[in-house]
Write a structure and sequence with these properties.
Helix content of chain B: under 10%
Helix content of chain A: under 10%
Oligomer: heterodimer
Structural class of chain B: mainly beta
Shape of chain A: globular
Structural class of chain A: mainly beta
Order of helices and strands of chain B: EEEEEEEEEEE
Strand content of chain B: over 45%
Largest interface: A-B, 25 and 23 residues
Largest sheet of chain B: 6 strands, mixed
């Protein structure tokens, strides 16, 4: 069964460093998403991406964040200068038509 | 922004008991979804509801989309230990990116 994959599973970084979180969406999907879940809290929408551009972003997704689909398979989330409050689980999701399928997440820890 | 109120926050039940949880919203959603999240994993879709009033089952799970399109409930019958996890409701916005808005989750503990 096709699935969304994410790497790394856990990333530890120093405050102020740049991180890139990687996702491989399901191959025939056209819509891609990043969500964030701070420990013990709900899943929050960050950004959606379609046809090689951002279609919607939340207020959380400020200038420190960017997304890219550098090739036909990867979808990345970059945080330019991480802050302590960026520590969270980051989930990638993709969809073809109706349902969004989520990856297993990357746990980002900012020290 | 859009908010979903999910209750209860947590439940502690005995194996074999039935469970009910619900979500309400001040806004209308065109689709309601229920996800389950195991520790360290991403949310997994359980049930999707597309029409107001729709009642849908998936094994021991039953969910309904409220008539007003502002609420939904999820029932689990005859709970088993592997039902343990966090259950999230999510509303899907109409048009645009069709992003999901999640509730805060219901943490379910099943005692064998």
């Amino acid at each position: 069964e096709p699935e969304v994959t994410q790497t790394p599973s856990h990333q530890v970084t120093q405050m102020g460093q740049e991180v890139i979180l990687r996702c491989v969406p399901i191959s025939n999907h056209l819509y891609f998403y990043w969500y964030r879940q701070i420990l013990g809290q709900k899943v929050e929408f960050l950004v959606s991406f379609y046809n090689n551009e951002i279609s919607e972003k939340s207020e959380i997704f400020d200038d420190q964040f960017s997304v890219e689909r550098p090739d036909g398979s990867n979808f990345t989330l970059k945080i330019r200068s991480t802050k302590l409050e960026d520590s969270a689980m980051y989930f990638c999701a993709s969809r073809a038509a109706s349902w969004q399928f989520f990856g297993p997440g990357t746990r980002l820890t900012v020290l | 922004g859009q908010q979903l109120n999910q209750s209860p926050q947590s439940m502690f039940i005995q194996e074999g008991e039935d469970v009910s949880m619900n979500c309400t919203s001040s806004s209308i959603f065109n689709t309601w979804l229920w996800y389950k999240q195991d520790p360290g994993e991403g949310p997994v879709l359980l049930i999707a509801l597309y029409k107001a009033g729709e009642l849908t089952s998936n094994g021991r799970l039953t969910a309904q989309f409220g008539i007003t399109r502002k609420d939904s409930f999820l029932n689990i019958s005859a709970s088993i230990p592997s039902d343990v996890g966090i259950y999230f409701c999510a509303g899907r916005t109409q048009g645009g990116s069709e992003k999901l808005v999640f509730g805060k989750g219901t943490k379910l503990t099943v005692n064998p």
